[in-house]
Design a protein that fits this description.
The chain is an alpha/beta fold. 40% of the residues lie in helices and 19% in strands. The protein binds 5-S-methyl-1-O-phosphono-5-thio-D-ribulose. The site of 5-S-methyl-1-O-phosphono-5-thio-D-ribulose has 17 residues, from α2 and β11. It is an enzyme of class 5 (isomerase). This is S-methyl-5-thioribose-1-phosphate isomerase.
């Protein structure tokens, strides 16, 4: 997508054809800075410290992490250690394991001397595939938005609610939840997005709002607890969120708070869609509540807030009563029964085992 008129992706190979550039997402929304990854460990730290985040981008960064390792030491031992190190960075998004497995599959049967080139080629393919998948998700989700727009008065916007950031910053490009939104906007359909701020890290307020604003999409940032009220008053036509891991039976794990939005949507008859690329489906599990590991993060994310002062200084302040214990669960699980449909690269699929298996027979 474009930033101030210049096309960007979230991750790319530098002119030297080996070092990898990423956008440092911890600096948003106040600064646009990029960081160079020169070794596997740089990639692991970028994922762990959330310079990159969002399930597909975590996978793409891990893929390049393996390529950086293969360039320095392509031995079986070094690649296995790199796999373990990268895999341990974040537990919930399954795209991480998917991308690492893809890299191992691509490298395993080749002599060490050929592995670096193959690794860079496969990492680049994973990025290209992600872009193509998100465009397909966009086209499929666009049909849902068009159907709602067709019932509106001329000029009346379709109101979409989204949670966290499943936008282009969470993927290589386009985003999952945002791809249909960008396509609707670009196609002249009036659209307005309610952006959940998404405490504690504020991915909605700092990332989704930033990217929608730069693309000219009308949006309003709302405190996380507002969605239910808006739905009760007919101000949300549909919800579209992303996911970090979806089970073979359609349970959806996404940023903490997604479940509450799904409950509110269910109670108010608002369609609740989840946009996802197939690498986010974990075909090895069926029960999202019991089987998906939920990342627990530092309490500092809850007790502190970072922002910019009037004179341009970035400052962090405490917002919780000193000494109070805090809990910081990063994700929750929305059971399949609350999901209206999964917007995938192969169409809108029912959130149930047989339908998912029919759509992706080669993986089920
Ligand atoms: C297309 S991104 C889907 C999800 O990864 C996204 O909704 C999300 O929850 C991101 O969480 P984050 O903790 O910022 O990595």
């Amino acid at each position: 997508m474009k930033v101030d008129g210049k096309p960007y992706r979230t991750i790319w190979l530098n002119k030297d054809r080996w070092s990898v550039e990423i956008i440092d997402q911890t600096k948003f929304p106040h600064r646009f800075e990029t960081v160079t990854l020169r070794a596997m460990d740089d990639a692991a730290r970028a994922i762990k410290d959330m310079l990159v985040r969002g399930a597909p981008l975590i996978g793409a960064t891990a893929a390049y992490g393996m390529a950086l390792q293969a360039r320095i030491d392509p031995s079986d031992e070094a690649l296995t250690a790199a796999y373990e190190r990268l895999h341990a960075t974040r537990p919930t998004a399954i795209n991480l394991k998917w991308a690492l497995d893809e890299m191992m599959k691509a490298l395993r049967n080749f002599p060490p001397a050929e592995r670096a080139k193959r690794a860079y080629d496969r990492a680049a393919e994973i990025c290209e595939e992600d872009v193509a998948i998100n465009q397909a998700i966009g086209r499929n989700g666009l049909e849902l938005i068009k159907a709602i727009a067709a019932k509106k008065k001329p000029g009346e916007p379709v109101n979409v609610l989204t949670h966290c950031n499943a936008g282009w910053l969470a993927t290589v490009d386009w985003g999952t939840a945002t791809a249909p939104i960008y396509m609707a906007h670009d196609g002249g359909i009036p659209i307005h997005v309610w952006v959940d701020e998404t405490r504690p890290r504020n991915q909605g307020a700092s990332l989704t709002a930033w990217e929608l604003g730069h693309h000219g999409v009308k949006h309003t940032v709302i405190p996380d607890n507002t969605g239910g009220h808006l739905m009760q008053h007919g101000l949300v036509d549909l919800c579209i969120v992303g996911t970090d891991r979806t089970t073979a039976s359609g349970d959806v794990c996404n940023k903490i708070g997604t479940y509450l939005k799904a409950l509110a949507a269910h109670d108010n008859g608002v369609p609740f869609y989840v946009a996802l690329p197939s690498p986010t489906i974990d075909f090895t599990i069926d029960d999202g509540l019991k089987q998906i590991p939920i990342e627990q993060r530092s309490g500092d994310e809850v007790t502190k807030l970072t922002g910019i002062t009037k004179d341009g200084r970035i400052e962090t302040v405490d917002v919780v009563a000193p000494g109070s214990p805090v809990a910081n669960y990063a994700f929750d699980v929305t059971p399949a029964k609350y999901v209206t449909g999964l917007i995938t690269e192969r169409g809108v699929v029912k959130a149930e085992k047989a339908a998912i298996a029919r759509a992706f027979p080669e993986r089920a």
